[in-house]
Amino acid sequence: MHVVVPFSADRPKTRLADELSAAERRDFSEAMLSDVLDALDGVDRALDVTVLATGPVDTAGDATVEIDDRPLTTAVNDRLDTAPTAVVMADLALATPEPLADLLDSEADLAIAAGLGGGTNAFLARDTAFRVDYHGASYRDHLEIAGEEDLSVREVDSRLLAVDIDEPADLAELLLHGEGAATDWLVDAGFELDVGGGRVEVVRY
User: Fold this and answer.
1) What is the reported pTM?
2) Domains in the chain, ordered, with CATH?
């Protein structure tokens, strides 16, 4: 099975610019990518993993790296001509093999996992009629596309796949629940949780 992991190498995680420098955002993004690739490596089935990057990547491990600086929708759609193909986002730093295996083992024409903000964090397409349209609440749009193509759909409800690390508030989820390279990177960079005053906040020392 082919698995595509899109990765922004040129402008990673711009919404974290108030918390991290450009170089730090790149290092942190590569740590999250490493976590996602480790989780895929732990899935008990043969996977052909491709990192679909906008530029060179240093931490892809054994995965193939393909450079494609076109918009995400175009780049991904060009790789959905062979089924089955899965797409797993590179910022799912809480992902583990178990929910990924649940997604990848689905026999539906489209198995899909939503992000907390309504995006599409991962999917498996077993029918080449499916195409992506990444913008805004893409999860809803992808369900509509599947309906238009009369595809069977399985919605995978997994918190570990729903949490993508985009905003400063998302760092708390990683510090609370993460166990991989991205969490270690945050701790080494001086981030920790402040639970005073009845609120959980991320601070940097």
Assistant:
1) 0.96
2) 2-166 (3.90.550.10)
